[in-house]
Amino acid sequence: SHPIMAHESHQYRVLLATNEGALHISLYPDSHPAKPAQHFIKLVEDDVYDGSQLQSILPKFFVEFTPHKIGPTLSNSPHVPTVSFDKAGVVALGPKNQLVISLDRCDAIEQKYFVIGEIDEHDVETLVNIGLYETDANHIPFTALQIMCAKILQNKTPGSPDVNPKKRKGTFKEPAPALQRQTTSPFKRRKTDISPPASSGSISLPPTGPEAFDLSKQASIINDEQQAIKNSPVRAAMQQADPSLMLSNRSISMPDLRSLNIPPKWPSRLVIIRHGESEQNAVLDLPQVAENIDAIARIRDADVKLTQRGILQARHTGLYLSKTEKFDICFVSPYFRTRATAEEIARQLPYNIKVYTDNTLREKEFGRLHGLQAVHVKDRFPEEYKARERDGKYWYRFPGGENYPDVEMRVMSFLERLSREYAGRSVLVVTHQVPYKMIRAVLQHLDENQVLSLDAVANCGIQEYILDRRKSPEGRLKLKTFNFVAYDADVVEKETTFQPTSSSSHSTPHTPK
Q: Which positions are annotated as active-site residues?
């Protein structure tokens, strides 16, 4: 994913005047690719976003505005790598001109979105207030929010070519009288009229900033429309006929199918965490690993313990999770290192949480090759090494062990259980690296190459999904973060006093409380 350049000089600034307040967007001069940023400027010039509605809010994730007008889309643009938002206020453009603004850091917005800029710091408070709007189960806000107008406030840097030289910046274009829309019904969405009188011709752009727009007047117009819709006899009749309908203020022509009382299919939140650093992880990182390989292989995989560094990683991760949404339940692999990680995380939470072991979450079984690296396999089991080279890492099945598809079948069984028994709940999972990756593979339909291209998962790396019901009433799990580390590695290192040795690997494990 490409980095967010938060401190670059900006070529353009765009004002979104909403009935909650002003949002100023500073566009990145070197957006990746440049075409979406140029496309966005053209949409603003063509007033595509004037009258746009706040379509949905995913709490602590992002808000999405849907254009009121239909304009040329980015559907033919090449996809870019999955983008990352490193903070609140980063703005991305979707293929159908949707504006997505992040409310928190998130690692995996889908590939069809393009990062184009960020909200100015002094407007972040307005964005936070928007993110606090209450929504229904489908993420539709109960309080309607509208972009009353979107205008370019700052031109390009001196000497750079025009993005769209055919149209002058800084003027309003007088609409043809025959095309001026007349508002005849309070039940039709009214486009905010910011055009000058027909006799005035083109006028200069008014002073920039929030004071340039009478937001209270525009908000009053919108509120009058909403109140008229709420008091409509048609709406009242529909509500009386079926009290379960959750009618929005957007249209009374027919009920929104997403607003029907359809139960969710998935947990409302799913967080997967890899265990903290284990003694096997630590020993395999030592230069003299060959001297310790037999000691590693003699310990049953289920009995491998955490190092002190691993315990501290789990502790700091628990402190981070204690400040997020409350979990309803926790599932953990039966292996010692995952149970110890879950126990340390649970200690940091300001509430009690039920923790259950689930055998489907255990690590991929390595069979006879447990604890051995490729170089040791080549030396001790040359035939197996040749078979692994032939079949590849994904398909090769260890003697007495498993391959990636075997783990995938286990993970599918676990996810089916979550869907069946814990839909709508907040679920925490503590597992191992291969199941961690295969959960994403199942939910996002990844193939062999995509799975193998995933980065190595950090100890206590966090993978998080949020239930998204915008496109289907039962919802789908949308990836928010993958392999996110919540602790400061330098702080953990300073707190670490234990250095793993081969002798410590013989300790008898105890069952965590």
A: 275, 363
